[in-house]
Amino acid sequence: MKVGAYVSPKCVAMKEREMPVPAFGEALIKVSYAGICGTDMMIYHGLHPRAEAPLVLGHEFSGVVIDIDGDQHVQKGDQVVIEPLIHCGVCSACQQGQFQVCQKLRYIGIDQDGGFAEYVTIPIHRLRLLPASVTEKEGAMIEPLAVAVHTVRRSKLKVGDTVVILGAGPIGLLIGLIARQAGAGRIVISDVSSMRLEIAQKMGFEVIDARHTDVTHVIKKYTDGVGADVVFEVAGIQATADQMIECIKYQGEIVVVSVYKKAPTIQLSAMHFREISLTTTRCYTPSDFTKAIELLEQQKIQIDELVSHILPLEEIQTGFDLMENPDQALKILFKL
Ligand SMILES: NC(=O)c1ccc[n+]([C@@H]2O[C@H](COP(=O)([O-])OP(=O)(O)OC[C@H]3O[C@@H](n4cnc5c(N)ncnc54)[C@H](O)[C@@H]3O)[C@@H](O)[C@H]2O)c1
Ligand SMILES: [Zn+2]
Ligand SMILES: [Zn+2]
User: Fold this and answer.
1) For residue range 258-275, what is the model confidence (pLDDT) as tens digits?
2) Buried b vs exposed e over 198-209: b needs ≥16 C-beta within 10 Å?
3) Ligand sitting nearest the alpha carbon of 105
4) Domain holding 307: CATH number?
5) How many angstroms separate the CA atoms of 40 and 5, rounded?
6) Residue 239 Cα, ligand 2 centroid: separation in angstroms?
7) Are residues 271 and 327 in the same domain?
8) Band of the pLDDT at 70, cuts 50, 70, 90?
9) Is residue 41, in this structure, part of any structural domain at all?
10) What residue intervals traverse the membrane (predicted)?
C-alpha cells in the first residue's frame, strides 16, 4: 500500500509499505481524507521534539472500517473519524478525565504511524462514528474543529462579547465559527495574508490587515477605547503576543492557543494593572470531539470554505511546499 512519510527535514515522500494487520483491540481502516496541519509542518521542518523518520504522518483523518472484531460501537463499512490522542489512563490528569493534559500523551500520526496511508490500524476506542449527514471530507477536519470547540469552551466568552482573533489560519477561523455559535457579538480577525483575510471576510468576519493597519488602534476604535472582551492568540509570534495584551479590555480574557516556535516575551506588568486573565488550551476532551461532530451533523456550521486544495498522496511534497506560504493554501487535504 501507499503511505506518505516524513523522510528528513524538508523532505516528505510517498512510500510503499506492507498492509498493516490489526492486533487485538484494533480495527483496519481504509483512509478517505487526511489533512495537513501546523504540527505536520513542525515535523516536516525537523522541529518536533518526538516525531522520528520514517514516520507516516497524519492525525486529522476520516475513513471506512474494513475489518473489526466482535460487536463494537462501529461496524464494518461504517464511516469513521479518528480521535488521535492516546492517553496513559493512569496519571493524575487521566484520573481526573483530563486526557488532553495526560503526562504521557501520545498522538497517532506523531508518535506512531498515522493517516497519510491507504490503510491504517487504529485502536477501536479511538474510532468515532461519522453520522450520515457528515461528509468524509468534513470528517478530516473534525480534529481541528474539536480544538476550536475546546478553546471556546475554556474561555469565559459570553453572549454579545466582542471577540478578537489574531491569526486567520484554520484554527483561528474555526475558533471564529465556534465563537459565533456561542453567541459572540462582534468578531474581528487579523492576519497578514490577503488570501486568508479574503476567506475570513467571506465567512462573515470583520477583518484587519495587520500589514497595513495598527490592530490595537482599530480594536480600541471599535470598542470606544475600552478593548475586546476576549482575545484569542492564534498566530504564534511576538507581534501578536504583544497585541493580545494591548487590545484587551480591563478584566478581559486572553486565550493563548498558539504553540510558539520561539518563546515570546509576555508583558505581565501590563496585564496586572488591568486584571487581565490568561488562559491556555491544549487539544480537546472526548466531549469536545463529540460536540464538533454534532455541530456538523446538525449543520450548525460550514467548514468547507477552509479547504483550499485536495491532492492525491502522490503530490505530498507539493502539499507541504504549498503549506509553506500562507497566501497559497489554507487547509490541504489528501484524498486517499
Ligand atoms: N492549543 C492547541 O491544542 C493547538 C492545536 C492546533 C494548533 N495550535 C496552534 O495554533 C496556531 C494556529 O494554527 P494554524 O493551523 O491555524 O496555523 P497557521 O500557521 O495556518 O495560522 C497562523 C496564522 O497567523 C497569521 N499571522 C502571521 N503573522 C501575523 C500577524 N502579525 N498578525 C496576525 N496574523 C498573523 C498567518 O498568516 C497565519 O494565517 C499554531 O501556533 C498552532 O501550533 C494549537
Ligand atoms: Zn493538527
Ligand atoms: Zn495520563
Assistant:
1) 999 899 999 999 999 999
2) ebbeebebebbe
3) 3
4) 3.90.180.10
5) 11
6) 23
7) no
8) confident
9) yes
10) none
Question: Which three cell numbers, joined as nine digits, stand for 37?
Answer: 496541519
Residues 16 and 96 in one domain: yes
Task: Return the higher-pLDDT residue of 69 and 82.
Answer: 82
Computed over every residue of the chain, the mean pLDDT equals 97
What is the number of structural domains in the chain? Answer: 2
Residues 42, 168, single domain; the answer is: no
How many CA atoms lie within 13 Å of 251's alpha carbon, on the beta-carbon side? 0
Could you tell me if 124 and 220 lie in one domain? no
In a domain, 292, yes or no: no
CA–CA distances in Å: residue 244 to residues 251, 277, 329 = 13, 11, 25
- Residue 226 has a pLDDT of 98
Closest CA relative to residue 34, chosen from 134, 92, 154, 119 = 119
The ligand 1 atom at the shortest distance from the C-alpha of residue 151 is: 1
User: Do 108 and 214 belong together in one domain?
Assistant: no
> Are residues 76 and 17 part of one domain?
yes
- Atom nearest to 38 CA in ligand 1: 15
What are the residues facing 253 on neighbouring strands? 230, 277
Q: Is the pLDDT at 71 greater than 90, yes or no?
A: no
* Ion ligand 3, residue ranges at CB < 5 A: 87-88, 91, 94, 102
In a domain, 296, yes or no: no
* 239-256: pLDDT as tens digits: 999 999 999 999 999 999
**Mutation pick for ligand 1 pocket among 154, 259, 327 (CB with most ligand atoms within 8 Å):** 259
Query: Residues with beta carbon inside 6 Å of ligand 1?
Result: 37-38, 147, 166-172, 190-193, 196, 210, 234-237, 239-240, 257-259, 281-283, 326
